Amino acid sequence: MKLLVANGPNLNMTGTREPETYGSETLAAINSQLKARFPEVAFEFFQTNGEGDLIDKIHGVDKEGFDGVVLNAGALTHYSYSLRDAISSIKTPVIEVHMSNVFAREEFRRTSVISEVCRGTITGFGKISYFAAVFALSEKAGK
Ligand code: DQA
Fold it and tell me: Which atom of ligand 1 is nearest to the CA of 105?
């Protein structure tokens, strides 16, 4: 099974950015742990700080043959209707993930404009949010 793990704005700073909230491991370290934990999955890892770049990547996933997308859209989660429309435009299931518990933080983080068009949401488990999303997608595929 082929999965895209996509991270949006500021997630490249994981490991040094607010470590009390996002942990002290880098995104690269988390990605290699995912590969080690799920050796049967063909992963592609993508990170961008650009809304348009993330939308372009989402547009391609059906054609590129991905079985699912694990998406941490960062703050775009809370306001990007363009990203929401991009997710709506594809058939591949997308799981929304957040490392922090967005419901236990500032008010603006309690709104997600993408949840409604995602297969499900996992929030609050640090790096394990990514692992749980991969697990959910791989179970669905009945591997
Ligand atoms: C985040 C939560 C968002 O509110 C925030 O803007 C991020 C990271 C998380 O992983 O907890 O950049 O998506």
Answer: 4
For 64, 85, 116, 131, 143, the CA distances from 11, given in Å and listed in that order, are 24, 22, 22, 16, 29
What are the structural domain ranges in the chain?
A: 2-141
CATH of 2-141, picked from 3.40.50.11190, 3.40.50.9100, 1.20.1250.20, 1.20.900.10, is 3.40.50.9100
Ligand 1 mean position, distance from CA 34 (Å): 19
Closest by alpha carbon to 46, among 23, 20, 74, 18?
A: 74
Active site residue 59: no
- Alpha helix locations (H) across the chain? 19-22, 27-37, 51-59, 81-88, 128-140
Name the pTM for this structure: 0.96
pLDDT digits (tens, 9 = 90+) for 17-57: 999 999 999 999 999 999 999 999 999 999 999 999 999 99
Ligand 1 proximal residues by C-beta, below 6 Å: 10, 72, 74-75, 77, 98-100, 102, 109
Q: 120: which DSSP letter?
A: E
22 as an active site residue: the answer is: yes
